[in-house]
Design a protein that fits this description.
The complex is a heterodimer. By secondary structure, chain A is α+β, with helices and mostly antiparallel strands. Chain A contains five helices and eight strands, in the order H-H-E-E-E-E-E-E-H-E-E-H-H. In chain A, about 25% of the residues are buried. Chain B is mostly helical. Chain B contains ten helices and two strands. The chains are: A alpha+beta, B mainly alpha. Chains A and B meet through helix 1 of A and helix 4 and helix 5 of B.
Chain lengths: ~240, ~210
């Protein structure tokens, strides 16, 4: 049996060496990891705006080129006004509550859709994703989640196509133009119900996750409500 | 002692079949169920385990006479968790999509009983070379089962292998359906159970 002093010294030295090694690796790989995360975010904005990989997965470079060529990054404030010369990555921290990023998909010089970031609490974790509307400002174009820690197979199903595809084509406003968001309900949507236009099938075993999703989707859409009202007004002429 | 005397060969070969860590020692089941939906995740997971297990066995064995016996498990865990963190950081930097798919299960290699088990049962007693072989053998034994289970699950669960569609559109059009159960964890349990049954029957291994 070794002495206490030996045990203490031995563990201290090992901890210091391993700690140093890990910090070194972590720092030297940080930049590469950051690039990957940025590209992943761009990829998810593209997905939500109905871009899709046809034959083979995109490379990081392709994602960047596609993003730069077809997405315009804007910032809007609570009153729905576009703030000139400001991009999402430069929103000051103290203005995060009043200025919001907006990604506009442009096809042949005309606007094809809008994507906004959405995030909020599910059951275990904060979910992060993007929600996209058609250029009419009321029809859902797509929804994507890129980061969450919900239970795989239950709440984790929010990232699956079968769930997100149900959102496409639904409306976020009622007949009078009031914001109703999209509700994921228990069980299946009754297509004859008058509310079916803003409801989607829920996920069995994920009541809390979908409840959270309904709440934060509504909250995030409220932030952009005045902007999308303007979009709809302009469309009516 | 030559590098590949009969004892060393046995150390490397036994865990592949006769003494497989998953099917006979029934260790590491959690990750075997979780990451075997697709073959590519199973292969990357196996490579990660091969790296961690051979390295941890070797390191623990090199220091085996210096490690204070009271903290030997903590030391082994320290080495294992550092190696796993290294692997995790590496995947995040160079195989981002894969690291997203493996998410928590990669970090859970730390708690994989095979890794700590080999460090405690083998590397603490034997020399670095044999410990290296023992680690390699056990990790390969783990990998073989992982890949076998995932091949079954990907083929019957999503009709593809390594991401390539095997079952054609015409088959689906004429009424063939993927077996959803196989794609879920219970499917992995069933397949693993079948593999264990077949292996024990062929190998004439009886539970004492």
């Amino acid at each position: 049996m070794q002495s206490n002093a030996y045990t203490l010294i031995f563990t201290s030295i090992t901890t210091i060496i391993l700690g140093f090694l890990l910090s070194f690796v972590s720092i030297s790989l940080k930049d590469t990891q950051q690039i990957n995360e940025d590209i992943d975010i761009m990829k998810n904005i593209l997905y939500s705006l109905e871009f899709s990989e046809k034959d083979k997965p995109w490379t990081g470079e392709e994602v960047k080129i596609l993003f730069d060529s077809s997405i315009i990054q804007k910032v809007v404030n609570v009153d729905g006004e576009v703030i000139a010369d400001l991009v999402p990555s430069e929103i000051p921290i103290d203005k995060m509550e009043t200025q919001f990023p907006l990604y506009i998909k442009v096809v042949n010089n005309s606007i094809d859709g809008y994507a906004i970031p959405i995030s909020g609490k599910g059951l275990w974790s904060t979910l992060y994703g993007y929600f996209a509307l058609e250029n009419d400002g009321s029809t859902v174009k797509g929804i994507r989640f890129y980061k969450h820690k919900e239970t795989p197979g239950l709440g984790g199903e929010v990232e699956k196509d079968w769930f997100t595809n149900n959102y496409v084509g639904k409306k976020i406003i009622d007949k009078n133009g009031g914001l109703v968001s999209i509700q994921s309900i228990k069980g299946q949507v009754d297509s004859l119900s008058p509310d079916a236009y803003h409801q989607v099938d829920g996920i069995s075993g994920a009541t809390m996750t979908t409840k959270g999703l309904n709440e934060f989707l509504m909250n995030d859409l409220k932030k952009y409500d005045s902007f999308f009202q303007k979009v709809r007004m302009e469309l009516k002429g | 002692m030559s590098l590949f005397d009969s004892k060393s060969r046995q150390v490397l070969k036994d865990p592949l079949m006769q003494d497989n860590p998953i099917t006979l020692q029934v260790l590491g089941i959690c990750s075997a169920l979780a990451v075997t939906v697709k073959m590519d995740t199973a292969i990357v997971m196996s490579i990660a385990v091969i790296f961690v297990l051979t390295m941890s066995n070797t390191v623990v064995s090199i220091f085996r006479n210096m490690i204070p016996s009271r903290v030997r498990i903590i030391f082994a865990l320290l080495v294992i968790s550092s190696l796993v963190t290294l692997t995790d950081q590496y995947l995040k930097a160079y195989m981002y999509d894969m690291s997203k798919q493996l998410n928590v299960f990669l970090a859970l290699i730390i708690t994989n009983c095979i890794v700590l088990g080999r460090a405690e049962a083998f590397a603490m007693k034997e020399g670095p070379w044999r410990s290296f072989l023992d680690g390699l053998g056990n990790a390969l034994g783990y990998g073989i089962i992982l890949v076998a289970v995932s091949a079954f699950r990907e083929f019957f669960g999503s009709g593809s292998l390594m991401g390539y569609q095997i079952i054609s559109e015409e088959m689906y059009a004429s009424g063939y359906q993927d077996n959803g159960l196989i794609a879920f964890p219970p499917g992995a349990f069933i397949i693993l159970g079948l593999i264990i049954w077949v292996q024990r029957t062929i190998g004439k291994i009886e539970e004492e």
